[in-house]
Amino acid sequence: MKAKSMIKILAVTYGLIGILPIFVSDSSIMMRILTMILIWSVVASCWDLIMGYAGIFSFGQVAFYVIGAYSSAILSVSLNVPPILAIFMAGTITAMIGVLIGLPCLKLAGPYIALVTFAFQLALEPFLKGPLGKAIGSGGSRGIISVPPIEIFGMSFSSSELVQFFYLAFVMTLICSAVIVVILKSHWGTAFLALKDSEDFAASLGVSAFKYKLLVFGITSFITGLFGGLYVHYVGILSTRMLSMEVFTVLLIMIVVGGIGQYPGVVLGAVITVTANELLRPMGIYRLLIMGGMVVLIVLLLPDGVTGLIRKFSFSRWTNKENRSIETH
Global pTM? Predict the structure, then answer.
């Protein structure tokens, strides 16, 4: 997708989301949905960048999100680091771990990378609950409670100040989304696509698989960890429940609904998925069943997600316009 089209879709989507609090600020449910759309849209975008564009089948995105959350919580609770600084430090810590995980993945093919990164995610929960996790301040099975809210210039940003926190998340989302667009449309994005299509051909053109694979691991881990840290200061508590298969599944649904490698379709996927997930919560155990059925229908009817539908509609409208122009002449 062209940069101009990306910017248009992002501008319309985030523009609508940005003005909604004017009308729904009194509804805590709606404000929670809007805030979680912002957070998850960036986390899902990072996964789409590494999997849909770089072609690296990493299944550790939720793990990086949780590492960012735990890092920020531990820094602010145990070491009294100011939350806003703890968030950026958490992003840096997550990026370093992402690079370390990426190193052994350089010698592996697609499905094996998925297995290694998913195994890392599975190992994270017992680590956080075990003696080593407790030693660094994870709280073990109990988790971490009373995570302090973000304080900037005397203003508090937490779940008790929904509108203020929403606009803080909104600004961070816009910045990170702009960074992702710049990356995709720079020589980095071209290198990622080249490695995805044919690593041998990319190498013959001088594209270093080692450099760019570590780069994409580092960038996506940093941004994901950043938003993990943002989330924990929003909710104020933290436990290993964030590593559940439900979170992993919902995140994967966002990418499928938006279209893998169809950025910014994943942002639209986050809007649809988060809204549906929250509204279907009263359905209990049937919620994921309904969402799973929705995904099956989308995969069968719209293999490129909602982005494919938008592209098809735009092409059809452009074709009709051209036909009318020809008939006029």
Answer: 0.90
